[in-house]
User: Which sequence fits this backbone?
């Protein structure tokens, strides 16, 4: 069993965490540990991205997690 804290490494605020790209097994485990929502900030096709945000969304929904995608592009943050 993977602890949610190992995946969600940075607590931003009470109950709000940031973490790594998640696998299907990670999503299953997070759902079992009480996580209810995932917000994906990745942009489609980012370097090193191994999982399409669309696949991640399907997996999250299969685990009864709410999934939202809010694309953040580093290129636009520096403008």
Assistant:
């Amino acid at each position: 069993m993977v602890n949610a804290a190992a995946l969600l490494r940075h607590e931003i605020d009470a109950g709000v965490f940031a973490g790594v790209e998640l696998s299907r097994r990670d999503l299953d485990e997070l759902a079992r540990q009480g996580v209810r929502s995932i917000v994906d900030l990745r942009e489609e096709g980012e370097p090193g991205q191994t999982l399409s945000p669309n696949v991640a969304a399907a997996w999250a929904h299969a685990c009864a997690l709410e999934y939202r995608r809010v694309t953040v592009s580093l290129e636009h943050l520096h403008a």
